[in-house]
Write a sequence for this structure.
């Protein structure tokens, strides 16, 4: 990477961080993950909860010149304008955040601040009218708060797979097509709006988002960054440490059967076969890439309403060892979908803001550690992704 | 490392490999792992089984100038002189190796060859008489076959923890003490004999072996190499990929309960509380080292005779996520203890022979990926150990 | 039950068993379960294997006046006329029966005997022509061997759910409809043929079989017996002991998620959504019936070819306890589908023959313990079904 | 059973229930189970929680003439006189009872009532002085509240196995021995005191309690009833439905490995090898009794403090099927130890009171369904125990 704006001698001459806030715009702000990101950011800032699960608040990345927790302004889109306090109460009811944390004054203040910046988003596909509206709402948020940088994060429900075959690969041609009546999935409309304004865009879902050549080119043209896709919070996280083990030891994986049971809004959306296909595609990427071959691989997703936010991943792996005998590994992982996702969102916001501040542009493959289907790289092994992240962020002046 | 004998310009001027064989001396040769190593080596050489589970026969390390499978002579110690063909039949009965493989002529020939070199070993502690006898048997094996290098591998049953507090730290002082009547665990007697002769010593068990300052100094004095301890074949293997995941993501592990159920000779030995303590110490090392803190950690080992060689590891991990909610991971791993261990032995023999041929001396920390309690390094993370191994073996002229 | 032929003073005046053989006709004879039933019957008779898994060869039912293992003649239908020796070799390759058992002379002789009586069956639906042919083949088998009683057992692949809404409920009307062109699933054609001849019919699959009012009436009219449906071999077996536990203790089951992974021909058939629907219906019956309410209940079936005959059932149950706290039970069951099913077939043959000999007619609800979806009763609790079986079979002169 | 006092024509002429209260005396009243029994009784009475997990409040036993929830007076012993409100708060903190339930006025009132009746109990062994004191405290409780019947329930920590070999088998001889200086475990002192007064005694723990010939004889002499031992709340509950399944199907259990992980006070007590031996003996009884043979059977208990009250039972069963192939069943059960135990205590109090009121004397084997090691019967099968309970309680005038 030839040049980082103002980064010739390391982090020290970056603009002083405390003089301006970072803007954060959450698409799906009133959902579980959005609300937990909002409330959790405030709770960490106020010292109400320890930074468990955050990789940027302690450990090696704490040494990076990341934006402080004090310096952020939140806004976002959702379908309708739900009360964020009600969303936060739902987090308590589900056992995700303690009641005392949500009731604390700093968290309530943060929810109020964000409530004032909540706008009605795009449902399903969108066209030129939606693009213009979203873009102007993002610009207004940026201008109203004089934000030098805004990170837009997609946390909305998974969309069905998009038909992208005929879409133009040049940014201006894509914009022209939309103006002429083409429609895109909402996630791509948001990405288009954000990147066209030079804002950062992060796709935390398996939806299309910025995963189009024209959008990557647009990001580079506008000096924007983007990253994705689909936060790596559970079963795939495990796959990206276990598959390397089988690969290193050259044990031959014959079958890998995965099931996911969940009962939250994400689970309800994924009960739809088309949306589930998006998710399954995202979840299926890592295994073959790491092993170098494709075993029998099943990824099931089931909606069990009474599970609520507490998802359950079950995996059964059959592999052959020396001499051919079959061996097995079985796993059960149970966690709050939201509590696993929200800290990754917080980390991504901070790391994307840093990249933007350092003058990076285009896709950010060094953030692969956060994603099931990382843009810009084929590296799925967690440890290698982590090493790449540390090296990129902590090496003065460069990411080699 | 300043000098490798004859290695100034890389691997190309190493002595031609085909002109002489490598000696392999297995302590516990007639046990399951010993016999499977013998039979498996022959079976791979003859193409009777694929090299599944071997890291040196395919993948990146296949490019290293390792000794060929054609060039090895086997011998070993055991308690008594059991028939290796009977041991091999037991492998078939347990479902470890296919009947046709063990019955094949190349495997039977290999068993006959090793049978001729089987000697009665040391049971329990040993002193000067045992040392002298073992040393002379090893020297005779080396001389009889004109072996430039011999790798001695300890596969014998786990010993109780040894009292090593007062032992001399200088090699000659240790030898003098033994001559004067001091007794050492058998595993250390073998190590002392091997290293004193300049032979390589590998400790695949949790027993004491070469893990004494005096023995490491002796190895360096005699130009010998040594490595250990305790082959990483199952539960600990999993820990060294899963614990890094928790560490990377800064999820807070609260408890990690591990149980091992096994029914083979190793299991029977570990049914003794003292021997079990050795194993538990070995198995307990990795977790705290990787996490950076000590969660509640239980490691149980139970002897279930009807399980035979098919061990079962069960783990339950409770961890806190963002906001403090408790989450869980449960694992069940089932595999043949022997089929998991034997390929590691084969790989170690080849890699240790290479190190010796390259003129390395002393402990070999680059082999940490094979061990539960690696000598010479505190690195327990599998992926990092693997990277270190590749870098060490494949970098021309150096291991940086 | 008013009358048992010749049974007024108990079992002692039943016709002497050794004077004639029992006929057994297996539909799907060359499949895994069919072949294992044939070979297993011969192996038990010859003392080559212990009667593990058989409920009629030891324990309380061994006291019942059941037909001996010596007195049976086997025949059957399949699609084409596969070699039963090849089918038996497949059982060995899958680890279901030991090689020495299948190779033994008594087993080979039994396979030869049955091979001579193997006929080409009905594929898919059948009409009048198929009915006439099947009926005449069954009659010929009976007459050729002078069999006083023949038990026909359906072991063929699961059929899609049948449209039975408009079918006549009177036997003669059903026969007339078929003569006039109506078509029935193959399983019902076999049942119609068997019952019309007065033979016993057992449906070991979830297919329609004899589960039609007209067929039950036909059985009663012809003095025949029938039983079914769908052998209870794994996950449902567990449900019928675990659900009663929750019911007895009045623990409130909130969700019960079940997955079945299997790789044999049954699994391949069930990979078809329509056939799977049949199976799922059958597997879903017990839970609500036992609990008295319907929790969230998912039953997934997946085809994993490399699993072969070794099916895996995984269940996760969430239930509320006193005070409302959620608790969980998770289960993994792994077994050979065939080795679990075949002994039940053998037991059913013997018990159905006894019922027929005792003069019982119509459906046999006392055999519910063998079935997922028992005909003639709503009792699903295993222990109660077992008690009912013992009482019915062992009580002299009556089944109360 | 020849006679029930006043029960000649069924339940209808039993004394009217509402005219006097039932006394309940809990040994270990301030422990988790004791407090949950107190608070839970009040919460059910007030309709604050549904009767989930109670077998006497709904279902067939609801028809029995049991004492009402309105009519009970509680008291008890503990070590020291802890505040029951603090104990109840601990139940909330552990997620056993909802905060709103414990805070509700009826529950607080019940805690206050019981607090006034809390006395300092016996720690370790006791002799004549302790016996006299306990007996007088029980008598005073009875007299103070004019209680026609008092049920004493032992909920105290598990004691080490007691040496009972030389104890007299006649009640008066036992009393004389204690008077002369013999000492008994506390649980037996309580039983002796209660039964000597003609009160009912229930042993919910594996401690000795009333399991002495002299105590049973004393109960019969004094017209008292007693029952035990060790509440069947988790792993053993599962064993008593799963082992019958293996027995019915004649599947051959080869090994059954059980582990229990728990972190509450019971777990801490069981971390002591002697007390653990008591528990293991109790937990080991059912399996062989049901199967009719003894497989390899391991029962491990481990103290994992961070688990708190949420115990985890893991079982792995290996069994042989038809043809000898090995199959497996694995189970994980997770629940609140307290929430599983407390409703059983409530049920036992009501059922024991009824037995006493009906004039039954001596041991009460019809209560076996509640216990790991039932006194007075060898029946361990849950369904049979349940049938026996229903028959005994619901059959007018008799328990046949």
């Amino acid at each position: 990477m030839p040049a980082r704006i103002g980064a010739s001698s390391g982090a020290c001459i970056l603009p002083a961080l405390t003089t301006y806030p970072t803007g954060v715009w959450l698409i799906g702000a009133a959902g579980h993950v959005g609300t937990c990101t909002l409330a959790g950011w405030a709770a960490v800032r106020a010292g109400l909860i320890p930074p468990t699960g955050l990789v940027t608040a302690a450990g090696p990345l704490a040494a990076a010149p990341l934006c402080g927790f004090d310096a952020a302004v939140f806004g976002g889109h959702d379908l309708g304008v739900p009360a964020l306090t009600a969303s936060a109460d739902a987090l308590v009811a589900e056992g995700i955040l303690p009641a005392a944390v949500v009731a604390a004054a700093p968290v309530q203040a943060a929810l109020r601040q964000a409530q004032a910046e909540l706008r009605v988003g795009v449902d399903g596909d969108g066209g030129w009218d939606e693009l213009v509206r979203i873009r102007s709402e993002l610009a207004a948020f940026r201008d109203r708060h004089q934000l030098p940088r805004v990170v837009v994060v997609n946390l909305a429900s998974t969309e069905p797979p998009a038909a992208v075959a005929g879409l133009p690969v040049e940014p201006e041609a894509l914009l022209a097509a939309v103006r002429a009546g083409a429609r895109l999935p909402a996630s791509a409309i948001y990405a288009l709006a954000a990147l066209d304004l030079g804002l950062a865009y992060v796709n935390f879902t398996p939806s299309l988002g910025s995963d189009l050549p024209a959008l990557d080119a647009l990001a580079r043209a506008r000096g924007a960054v983007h990253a994705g896709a689909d936060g790596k919070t559970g079963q795939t996280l495990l796959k990206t440490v276990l598959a390397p083990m089988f690969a290193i030891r050259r044990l031959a994986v014959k079958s890998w059967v995965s099931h996911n049971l969940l009962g939250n809004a994400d689970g309800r959306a994924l009960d739809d076969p088309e949306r589930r296909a998006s998710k399954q595609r995202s979840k299926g990427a890592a295994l073959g890439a790491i092993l170098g071959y494709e075993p029998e691989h099943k990824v099931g997703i089931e909606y069990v309403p009474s599970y609520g936010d507490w998802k359950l991943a079950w995996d059964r792996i059959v592999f052959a060892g020396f001499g051919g005998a079959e061996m097995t590994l079985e796993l059960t992982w149970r966690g709050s979908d939201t509590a696993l996702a929200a800290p990754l969102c917080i980390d991504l916001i901070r790391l994307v803001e840093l990249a933007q501040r350092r003058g990076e542009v285009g896709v950010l493959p060094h953030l692969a550690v956060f994603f099931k289907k990382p843009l810009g790289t084929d590296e799925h092994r967690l440890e290698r992704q982590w090493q790449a992240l540390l090296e990129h962020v902590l090496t003065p002046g460069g990411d080699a």
Summary: Chain C touches chain A through 19 residues (CB under 8 Å). Chain C has a mean pLDDT of 92. The longest strand of chain C covers residues 252-262. DSSP finds 13 helices and 13 strands in chain C.
